[in-house]
Amino acid sequence: AMLRLRLLTWDVKDTLLRLRRPLGESYAAEAQAHGVQVQPEALSQAFREAYGAQSQRFPNYGRGQGLSSQQWWADLVKQTFRLAGVHEDRVLTLVAEKLYHDYCSARNWEVLPGASETLSQCCQRGFRMGVVSNFDNRLENILTQCNLRHHFDFILTSEAAGFAKPDRRIFEKALRLSGVPPEQVAHIGDDYTRDYRAARAVGMHGFLLQAAGQGEKLEVPPEHVLPTLSHLLARIEK
């Protein structure tokens, strides 16, 4: 039976957009521009550690604890460099500020293969579309720079919502914004817990974007798995 969908909601990172190059490389290049040598691999490892600690201490960009997301990122970048052995505060402040703005543009983000075409086809079929993403408030600008913004009725970030996926309240907020009942909505994303399971927990449909061989262990019916984004419409219209 064909799904009677009216609205599609989309995750962004690694679903529609991805980083152009590994984060450690971008961080190392920025440090080098300020005269500081650090190995990209050391920065990647330091970032993972710092990001984990920062996310635990100040979840969702410190939204509930009085931090701005810009402050949250600045602190995270500085801590990343400190863990990698760089301690010049003046340089770290400059690097953190520059990186914050660089990650707001198409310089550091690229559209995943098939994403533009799939979004255009969904719009042509008459689906309404929105974004539900654990992102900070730079997202709308990033989507504009990457020429995807025009596809969407709304952009709901975890920073704006005050809740991050898999919290059901961010999905409930998206449903209220759209006025569409959950059984007429499908969410598309690459994360089993935050996207697929969380959307289904509020009664929405879910599609999980997954390269072959990633998810055999997960409890996802094959008709809900998208090997690429271009499989979506066939899945919906079956």
TrEMBL record:
A Pfam family (short name) is Hydrolase
- Similarity comment text for this entry: Belongs to the HAD-like hydrolase superfamily.
Task: Quote a single Gene Ontology cellular component term.
Answer: nucleus
Protein name, entry field: Haloacid dehalogenase-like hydrolase domain-containing protein 3
